[in-house]
Amino acid sequence: MRLYLPDSGPIDVSEGLTVFELAQKLFPKKVPVTVGAFINKSREVSDVRTSLSNGDHVQMIFLPSKESLEVIRHSAAHVMAQAVQELWPDVKVTIGPVIENGFYYDFDSPRPFHPEDLEKIESKMKEIIKRKLEVKKEVWPKEKAISVFKKIGEHYKVEIIEELNEPEVSVYQQGEWFDLCKGPHVGNLSQIGAVKVLHQSGAYWRGDETKSQLQRIYGTAFHTEKELKKHLRDLEEAAKRDHRKLGKEMGLFYFSDLATGHPFFTGAGATVYNELKQFLREMYFKYDYEEVITPQVFSSELFTRSGHKQHFVDNMYPVETRQSHIEKNLQGKSPSGNSVTEESSGTPAPYGNLDEEASSTEESRGAQAPYGGFLKPMNCPGHCVLYSFQKRSYRDLPWKVADFGRLHRREKRGVLHGITRVNSMCQDDAHVFCTPEQLEPEIENLLKMFQEIYRQLGLNEYKVALSTRPEDSMGEEAVWNKAEAVLSTVLEKSHIPFEVHPGEGAFYGPKLDLMFVDAMNRSWQLGTLQCDFNMPKAFNLKYVDSDNQEKTPILLHRAILGSLERFMGVYLEHTGGHLPLWLSPVQVLLINISKDQENYVKEYANQMKSLGIRVEMDIRGEKLGYKIREARLRRIPCMAVAGEREMKSQSFSVRLRDGMSVQLKKDVFVKEILEIVKNKKREISF
Question: Helices in 294-435 by DSSP H: which ranges?
């Protein structure tokens, strides 16, 4: 058969050759460091035991490449599971995937794991790796796999196999220990470098709170101890920058079990939130957007038409309208499904029960129920309705509409994380309705807008990914191909590097994702641009073209920061809480050294407030050092100190949070502050 390798011509090899055998044939010196391959430009790593086919394009993966980390971490997860079961044979294993910068494994253990247990697990992992066990792969018929795992009491594996609906499954074995897995894995455990068990947490089987509670142990693996130590130092820094910690120190937001996944923003947090909105509103004015307001609750019919009910219902909050309640009563049932009595058939509340238990039932979730509706999870269907209210000409397009309405999405409790993963959010969401002729220039214009906003915020390093048609999609393949081609063409013409993520598009259209790389070298998906030929058809949207014929517009979905909640969390961690002056809840803190300067500070605070500067005073009878340390903990960018000398010279000793100090006349200080805020400068310099 014929194979193709990067930077070389076609190669003829024996039929049925595996990736490992190809390495033996072409790269004999690299056989000990061969761990997998990318086949036919797929982003998914193929196992070294994968058989190749005629015409395959093969890119080998060797240690110590970045791509090989996924393989050694996947194998290290198996080593962790083996270590746990060698230490405590009664523990049952569930799943152990690779995650960013590491892996985890979920265990069903009759006893809780303690910190000293994690040390034992790590020690046992290192011992197992030193055995240099060969990792073997076998393919078993489904019936055999079920029988074997039942026999050893691994009922979680049995459940997985039964749900796979596959005639065969793959099993990997190292020594006497084996596990159900699709791979990829190393050929020998000696290929795993340095490992570390990090921490533990609780989890639920399949992320479902109604199922077994498990114990999740996190770990990581690197090629060398040096790389591992650097990663551990990065983790320490990341812990200092954790937005949940910073949010508490800066007094920005809080959480309560009374509203799980719904943050409470303080006055300080709301200031940051609203400043971000105002910044975006200024950009909307510049780029010709209309800001609109759409309803919070819609009939389920809307989301059936848009396709969200069919593809997204598990993440939507159902509600029951007054009318649906009455209709159910007329059918002899209350909203809870009980028979209606005279006592219970009075006027109901406008909205039904939104609690977790009630909305998890098949009827109340709305998947099959003909009644009620949903809290709005996204703005696009409402904007389509708004478009339909008036007749439109090609001269009216592009129509750019933005919306800061609240959105509600049901997330499993296990994936909620501070303000970066919540149940209630506000997106900098907008939609562009345009003609086919306007599509390319509008995408170019959107990319220009993205770049301007990111540059202003100092988000200078980001990657772009083009995500193509997923399996669970709506619309015709030809339409998808056209949309994908337009997006890739615009990126190429704009000289923007990008990578393709096959099958990761939205269900209604392909998309561009902008992945911001933060100060800790972590990637965060912020901006997105989605090209949609399907939803306008679903809503029968039209415009009259220059030939006087009705045609269907194209819809571009776009968000630049994503949700404001998530962006705040990401930006806090990126900046370590040191927000630009224009975004800071408190821009200036005035501090007196003694009671003699109290009136001087008060008078100046009033003057600054009248000019729109967010200023606070600290005139407590505390020592100066204490006041400054407290202000730095709150990440206040400017501290203006007044003592006897400053009061006499009508000035302040200005101290920045980075430790820099300068003496400024008070009028000059105000002027400089106003200039920095007006131009949204990221750095403070006097």
Answer: 300-306, 308-312, 322-330, 356-359, 362-365, 380-388
Give the CATH number for residue 163: 3.30.980.10
Pairing assessment for the beta strands 373-375 and 318-319 based on DSSP bridges: antiparallel
CA angle 75, 36, 141 (to 5 degrees): 70
Q: Check residue 354 and give left, alpha or beta (phi > 0: left; psi -120 to 50: alpha).
A: alpha
Model confidence pLDDT, tens digit, residues 50-75 = 999 999 999 999 999 999 999 999 99
Residue span of the structural domain in which 150 resides: 69-240
Please tell me the distance from the alpha carbon of residue 631 to that of residue 625, in angstroms, as a whole number: 10
141: Cβ contacts below 8 Å, ≥ 6 apart: 167, 168
- In this structure, are 28 and 121 located in the same domain? no
Residue 264 counted as domain residue: no
Which pTM value belongs to this model? Answer: 0.80
User: Are 475 and 508 spatial neighbours (Cβ–Cβ below 8 Å)?
Assistant: yes
> Closest by alpha carbon to 583, among 659, 656, 680, 460?
680
316 part of a folded domain: no
User: Would you state the pLDDT for residue 323?
Assistant: 58
Mean pLDDT over 212-220 rounds to 96
Phi, psi of 411 (to 5 degrees): -115, 145
Instruction: Tell me whether residue 361 is in a domain.
Output: no
Please give the tally of structural domains in the chain.
4
- 389 lies in the same domain as 442: yes
For residues 160-174, one letter each, b for 16 or more C-beta atoms within 10 angstroms of the residue's C-beta and e for the rest, the string is bbeeeeeeebbbbeb
- 567/598 same-domain check: no
pLDDT tens digits, residue range 486-534?
Answer: 889 988 888 888 888 888 888 778 889 999 989 888 889 899 999 888 8
Residues with catalytic roles? 380, 409, 427, 429, 431, 511, 557
Classified as helix, coil or strand, 448 is: helix
Of 353 and 587, which is predicted with more confidence? 587
